Amino acid sequence: MIRDKIFQEKLESIVSDKVLFNEPMYRHTSIGVGGMADVLIFPGSIEELSQVTSYLRDCDVPFIPVGNCTNLIVRDGGYRGVLISLTVLTAIEFKPSALSVYAEAGVPFSEIVNLSIKESLTGMEFCAGIPGSVGGGVKMNAGAFGSELKDVIETVSLMNGKGDTKVAVKNALKFGYRNLDLPEGTVILGAKFLLTKGSGEKIRERVSEIISIRKKKHPLEYRSAGSIFKNPPDISAGKIIDDIGLKGKQIGGAKISEMHGNFILNSGKAKAKDIIDLIDITQKKVWEERGIHLETEVKIIGVD
Ligand SMILES: Cc1cc2nc3c(=O)[nH]c(=O)nc-3n(C[C@H](O)[C@H](O)[C@H](O)COP(=O)(O)OP(=O)(O)OC[C@H]3O[C@@H](n4cnc5c(N)ncnc54)[C@H](O)[C@@H]3O)c2cc1C
């Protein structure tokens, strides 16, 4: 079906922005690995997104929504189906009377952090330096420095598997550690964040402090997907990996960072397999030596 000309032309007729066929995903993932997605599509509006998902469902073609691909590893054989990038949906609205910010799925966190500095709104400082978008961040319940997105979310706008949209209040949603549980096929359209009036100067200082801590602790000069594993209760995954002597371990072009044990780096020519093999080895050794199962935080999709 995906190779069918009529199918391809139909997708191009729906979407005003880009439709890329056989697109190598190493060009799009922050870690710089990944084979070809059959289709990578960029709907330019919610209406286009709705038409795309409804057409894909009619054709029985699988799809996955993606954002900035900063928490994503696509296997070397690529993805059989359609990756729907929400990165073109970038509307953002600040309501001063309610101290709320509504941001569409494609808005990068850096933009909300900058807005919160400008408008003296406190609450989003912890997002400074997280390279994701609102859609991916909400799905991951992204967090840092003791806070997570669920702390500042008021509502999340969703499109369900049938293409119906709704606004869900936070308490009706199942947020967990680095996860928002959503039914299969659900797309996050945007989220409303509720912030508090603060001092612009203090917010700016905290953001600078967070950025400089990140620069000291994280190997930001290399391509990565951030933390590979979730932290088990009461201990950091990075510390366990350090303690069992895996820092610096290398397979092909992938290496466990010497600076931070929970980062796997692409030294330039890594394959997804190199990274996934390092993940497997780490999980096996941590299980054998500590009896702890390290669960991946990064999402791995596609075929070998
Ligand atoms: C250097 C670096 C530092 C990082 N630091 C942190 C950190 O401090 N804290 C943290 O939590 N994370 C961190 N990350 C990981 C990552 O940036 C976050 O998880 C981010 O929120 C992911 O957003 P994204 O847009 O890149 O999502 P993607 O990687 O594109 O997608 C992530 C997941 O969300 C799903 N998804 C994406 N968009 C949608 C949507 N619209 N609807 C439904 N599902 C969707 C995808 O299918 C996938 O399962 C870091 C990553 C890097 C590279």
What characteristics describe this protein?
4-stranded mixed beta sheet, 304 residues, Uridine Diphospho-n-acetylenolpyruvylglucosamine Reductase, domain 3, 5-stranded antiparallel beta sheet, binds flavin-adenine dinucleotide, 3 domains, Uridine Diphospho-n-acetylenolpyruvylglucosamine Reductase, domain 2, globular, Uridine Diphospho-n-acetylenolpyruvylglucosamine Reductase, domain 1, 28% helix, alpha+beta, 26% strand
Folded structure, characterized:
The structure is a single chain. The chain is of the alpha+beta class and 304 residues long. It folds into three domains: 5-85, Uridine Diphospho-n-acetylenolpyruvylglucosamine Reductase, domain 2 (2-Layer Sandwich), CATH 3.30.43; 92-217, Uridine Diphospho-n-acetylenolpyruvylglucosamine Reductase, domain 3 (2-Layer Sandwich); 237-301, Uridine Diphospho-n-acetylenolpyruvylglucosamine Reductase, domain 1 (Alpha-Beta Complex). The chain is built from seven helices and 20 strands. The chain has helices at residues 5-14, 46-59, 109-118, 134-140, 200-217, 237-243, 272-290, and strands at 19-24, 36-41, 63-66, 72-74, 79-85, 92-95, 100-104, 121-122, 143-144, 147-148, 153-159, 165-169, 174-176, 179-181, 187-194, 196-197, 250-251, 254-256, 264-266, 299-301. The strands form seven sheets. It has a five-stranded antiparallel sheet with strand order 6-7-15-11-12, covered by helices on one side. A hairpin with a 2-residue loop joins strand 13 and strand 14 (179-181). It is globular. The mean pLDDT is 97. Bound molecules: flavin-adenine dinucleotide. Flavin-adenine dinucleotide binds next to strand 3, helix 4, strand 9 and strand 15.
